[in-house]
Amino acid sequence: MDFSTSVLDGDDRHAVLLPGGGYPATAPLLWYTAAALSYQGWTVHLVTWPVKPAAGPGSSLSELARDLVRPVAEEIIESLVRPSRVLVAGKSLGSLAMPLAVERGLPGIWLTPVLTEPKIADTARRLGQDHLLIGGTADPLWDSTIAAASGASRLEVPDADHSLQVEADLQATLAAIVAAAHAVDDFARALQPTA
User: Fold this and answer.
1) Considering the entire predicted model, what is its pTM?
2) Dihedral angle at the C-alpha atoms of 141, 116, 134, 1, nearest 10 degrees?
């Protein structure tokens, strides 16, 4: 699979950060997620897709999940040598790895997940406390009802869009990014170490 990663070195806990289709790992929401994990000592793998992926004519989100997101996440996870903990974090397109994380019993951080995609919605409804959902009420891909029905920890930001930005309100946008970074930090600190 053709992709690249940059790694923030840490201990034997590994976090795989999967970006959105047009939202790279260096954009605020993912970058501060990486920073929160890195500051706690996690080794963070920041993925860059080979091209800007998009579901369009002839492709669907389920095909992108099957052909891009899942294989990349699997390749990175399988390359890790004796990790004490693996966490998967995905923004938008990256949230298509949610079923993989659940299948493997891995905790997950899902930033503006695509809760309108049926497989992701079904998986989200079954999440436990070892997952964190973060989204905004102005995001057409977020579903407050599904998020609330899940067993996941969650942060819902009023009026925030798919980038967790609040239109024409810099203070509210910055507050949303700070709240998301704190939610990630708190969530990761609360994860129990694996045996």
Assistant:
1) 0.93
2) -100
